[in-house]
């Protein structure tokens, strides 16, 4: 590896570590998980801005397909995890800042013990926000283990979501924190609608069909089945606008970058890029 790149990565790592040390994350409860939070203190914000600017240097000034291509190149430079390693990673990335022994569950907003990971009622498991059957990538190392779209979820709520596309409407999901569902779609609670959208957009930019995995893409449909598509695009774009990135989501992006995959979700750092690409 060229010395310039080594120095650059080392500088990014040091700046990112400063962010993680200095970022003040407010207490999180089931009622407020995913809610907006105050901005970090100025020094941490400045360090974070430096990390982000350096990481996206090759995307600077680009729009549309040129931006998408640049982002694919940037985020594809990542460390890949095994599916078993995802358990421990999620215990870190989704830790409840009000209780270090718990994780916050994506759809319900409940704070649950890290030790209750598994497949039984009352446990939390590894939810593929881009349903793994949409492209049939399973849990193989790659999209099936990419923690930018893997989140802790209550086993029963996760089962209700299944592989449904995302859309508005439906009936309340039991213990779902305000999530709704019908026969062909799932609507997450308001506090994480943007999180869900940005995870979908990340997957679409990261997996373009050029590295042996399907070309993932959001579309305007539900009932996409095993095709490498997920909908609905217009709804996901609206959710990105309605629920901007909060401190929990930003911290999660930083932890993945610093400690696990060493890549970022561009749409957490730059939610406005959704409109530029789609």
Keywords, separated by commas or semicolons:
278 residues, three-stranded antiparallel sheet
Q: Which word captures the global form? A: globular
State the domain count.
1
Question: Mind summarizing the main beta sheet?
Answer: 4 strands, mixed
Radius of gyration equals 18 Å
Mean pLDDT value: 89
Distance between the termini: 35 Å
Low-confidence stretches: 1-33
| Oligomeric composition of the shown chains | single chain
Order of helices and strands: HHHHEEEEEHEEEEHEEHHHH
Continuous helix count: 10
State the helicity in percent bands: 25-40%
Please give the order of strands in the largest beta sheet. Answer: 6-9-8-7
Secondary structure class reads alpha+beta
**Annotation, overall tally of beta strands:** 11
Beta-strand residue percentage: 5-15%
